[in-house]
Amino acid sequence: MAQLYFKHGAMGSSKTANALMARFNYEERGQKTLLVKPRMDVRDGDHIVHSRIGLSHPCVYFDEMRAMDEAALRENACIIVDEAQFLTAEEVDYLVHLVDDCDIPVICYGLRADFKGELFPGSYRLLVMADKLEEVKTICWCGKKAMFNARFDEDGHVLKEGEQVVLGANDKYIGLCRRHWMRGDLGPDFAARRSVSDAV
Questions:
Q1: What angle do CA 28, 30, 34 make, to 5 degrees?
Q2: Distant-in-sequence, close-in-space partners of 145: CB < 8 Å, separation ≥ 6
Q3: pLDDT tens digits for range 32-60
Q4: Structural domain boundaries of the chain?
Q5: What is the pTM for the complete model shown?
Q6: Which residues are identified as catalytic?
Q7: Which of 23, 33, 50, 69 is 20 to 30 Å from 56 at the Cα level?
């Protein structure tokens, strides 16, 4: 019986890499998958899902998937959705339809909350509707579990105001534990870590 999964994590927790590995695992066993992302996510190019560690694969946009015939969608062993936080509540309900009425497993990967600590609309609906919730874990600079996404400016100040979505600014975010997110503390070695990541 198909289920809807929501695998969420803070920035830098390898959600996209996990999505691409899940696709690879299905297809390595001869099972067809459909890799999907919201159209608004064009940071890494047109019709492509790309992870920070260099993995990438072509995808379709969510609206293109919705335009497909459901018989064609049923040919997939699984539908994998990256950046699911950008979905609308209605789009999540469409995924519920694919799971419940078409018996297609759907695995969604995305952020739970934004840099202000507020749920994204898509994440909120997935937290309500998903059969299975799973946290993709990463750590804060202090070693504790990172649960929050901090947005920071060029001077290393953590921001708590602004637009919820700023595409193409991955280098302006970092995962922090609750304590350090609340304090706006990027850590004593932030500048050194930043220069290393910029050099990679």
A1: 85
A2: 137, 138, 139, 177
A3: 999 999 988 666 678 888 787 778 788 99
A4: 4-135, 148-199
A5: 0.87
A6: 83
A7: 69
What is the residue whose two structure tokens read 């297809």? 27
Work out the pLDDT band at 192, boundaries 50, 70, 90.
low
C-alpha torsion 89→112→106→139, nearest 10:
170
Radius of gyration of the chain from its Cα atoms, rounded to whole angstroms: 17
Nearest to 102 by CA among 122, 85, 78, 80: 78
Asked if 139 contacts 44 with a C-beta cutoff of 8 angstroms, the reply is no
Report residue 148 as tokens. 């929050």
* Tens-digit pLDDT profile for residues 155-165: 787 887 777 76
Tell me 196's DSSP state: H
Tokens of 125: 């609906």
pLDDT, residue 15, reads 92
Angle at 32 (CA atoms; ends 27, 36), nearest 5 degrees: 100
To which residue do tokens 């840099």 refer?
Answer: 115
CA distance linking residue 177 with residue 24, whole number of Å: 31
Sheet holding 173-176, edge to edge: 158-159, 148-152, 173-176
List the CATH code of the domain at 4-135: 3.40.50.300
